[in-house]
Design a protein that fits this description.
The protein is α+β, with helices and mostly antiparallel strands. It has two domains: 188 residues, 2-Layer Sandwich (Beta-Lactamase); 190 residues, Orthogonal Bundle (Hypothetical protein af1432), CATH 1.10.3210. Helix content is 50%, strand content 10%. It is built from 17 helices and seven strands. Strands 1, 2, 3, 4, 5, 6 and 7 form a seven-stranded antiparallel beta sheet that branches. β2 and β3 form a beta hairpin. The radius of gyration is 29 Å and the shape is elongated. The termini are far apart.
Amino acid sequence: MSLELCEMSLQQIQSLLRLTDDTLQNICCRRFTTEELFVDALRKVLGGLGRRGPAGIFTVFRREDGTTCCGRVFQLRQGEVVERSDEIVMDPSSSYAVNLAETQNQAETVISNWADSGESIDDYQANFSPAVTAAVGAPIKNFITCRISGERPGSLIAFNYPGRATSYDGDVLHGLAVLIGSVVALSEKMRETENAFQYTIEALARACEAAEEGTGKHISRVNRYAGALAANAGFASDFVQAVSFSAQMHDVGKIKIPNSVLLKQGPLDRAENEMILMHPVYGEKILGNSPRLEVAREIAISHHENWDGSGYPYNLRGDTIPVAGRVVKIADVYDALRSRRSYKESLSHRDALEIFRNGDERIDPQNHFDPMLLKTFFDIEHIFEKIYDSLAGEEVGTE
């Protein structure tokens, strides 16, 4: 039996290691959440695919101020990890089993079986918060507690293993504790980096808009239009998120155009117009080759291309136009129609829809827009109207 347990424990540890390796390999090219990895890791320990595992796991972390511990009980139901409790709040100095591994001079892992305790089954339940036992819904007969180290210390308590909780099970739970502790620390550092990255990008977007009098909410509206259009067109959530954030960079190339041209009240001469037509190229160069800015770069270079190949700067046609650029083109044109410019008054939502249906001297919707995205636009045009109304009050200068 011990050999069988050892083999099952080894399989579980190897599975956790593969999860860690996959996460590290993908960390530079995908976003992940702590919750997403919790679920993957918990599934591997809770007995998925017939492997031995506990009936449930209580994950708990100290709040930043250190005054309380908060966590939830997770269990496996039909192969899926489900939360079986609301948030459980505990005093970090309590004597409950979840804190045993945090007590000074205790080992990182504590293993306990009711059959060895000399207590009655009812007395044994006093090791656990009443909220935990209520979430479990059955008497707890054994448990293993592991400390989670890091800037946000915490603990895992796994309960009701089949038969007895063993040192082999303790090794698996310790592996899970190390993985979760690493993921939490990495996730928080990445969040700090991501926040700094987003702040920098938003500052750059606003800097390129700042010269144009009355700007500000234009970039926020275009972000939201683009996200709504991409989501309702059925694109993957990662793409929707990327477009929702990157759309604000569509006109970043204007930062290289002199204010005397950008803000000119009268008609542009040929040289000035050619300079304006170069802003997609300037934007692509400014954004560079970073993988994190790939979608923003595609938007910057292609949001003035037309479906029939009549756009600029490269006269791309149809599916050769990056899809992110096709999405943002509709978002940008709608906002341009709704906003007052130096050369025109703002249009109502109804008048903007009329141009999206029948065109005007500048816009030919059937030839300029991706047909599928144009259909989606009409399906959700009321969302565009609500976005504009919720972020109205600041106008834009030039297109």
